[in-house]
Amino acid sequence: MSDLYFYLDFLFRLTIIYHYKHHDHVRTAGVSLIMGVILVGNPEFAGKISETLSSSAFVGIDHRIFPDGEVCPRLQLSEEDQLKGNHIVIAMQLELNQPKNQYLISLLWTIYNVKRHNPARISCIMPYHLYSRQDRETRKGEPISSKHLASALESAGIDDFITINSHTHGKVDIAHFFTKSQASDLSAIPVLGKSLKSRVSSPQESICLSPDEGALFLARGLAKAMNTPYFAAIQKIRNLETGEITQKLEGLSFELKNRTVIIIDDLVSSGKTMIGAAKIAKDKGAKEIILAYIHAVHSPPNFATMRKVNPTLIIATDTIKTNIIGLTTVSVVPLIGNWIEENS
Q1: What is the CATH number of domain 189-318?
Q2: Which residue in 147, 224, 236, 282 is the catalytic one?
Q3: Domain boundaries, the chain
Q4: Which of 16, 190, 205, 273 is deepest in the core (most CB within 10 A)?
């Protein structure tokens, strides 16, 4: 009888441990995770990151927006929960139709709020790097918004800043903008490459094409991820008098005819550059065209315009939360989870 009792007690304890690891940790932090990792954000993103980690907890945010537009992002903490002494990872995913400055203020308020609870460390994950396209003064009097954003985040209290394929990626090291914290610019190109490799019939014969010279390093990286030697960049020429942009593709050592062409860029807003690139690939006899990018910044109408060039597939990551029908998404959650595991 005593053996049966101990056996049942053992099973009960295993059940409790399983329940905590697979359920409780995606709802609340809990006082037992001192010096542990606690994800803060929404369950659809931060909660999923928490599930990939070997040991972590999750705290949700109640996003309240007042009629005048002011925001109040409340940490969903119980009386027993505490953030003190833990490594807090704030991972907030921008929604496609969400005003970007509303997102930014909610993020800043959350960082300040977490800081009040005396954590050991605060890591800020901004999957889509806001204001990354404003990294220099192109006209006298313009703000260098990338620098100002970094200063605001550091003033709020972050120790780490993590983003994915900042628009400055491959051109300017984002660490240049941060003076008090560590900055990491992760690449989702291997994530896209792995997904695309399983979707095309002959990945080693595919051609990775960037819509301009500035994104050539993305085409090179995607080609490496797909084990194909074929990549190139379309030349983009701007008429200095009219501002009109034309694109051309010349001097290739290989043909596009009867091949799968994957057009890759970091972000798509209007979609005009991708459409122009797709038309060039079609004119050169491509068998099928795939449009791929990291950040889906575009609106549904602009996405619909891109579909008119009849690509076989349009694929992006979930750095921005979208619900656009016809857009295939691959998740960056494992990529972020790996960074946390390696840096905690």
Answers
A1: 3.40.50.2020
A2: 236
A3: 2-187+333-342, 189-318
A4: 273
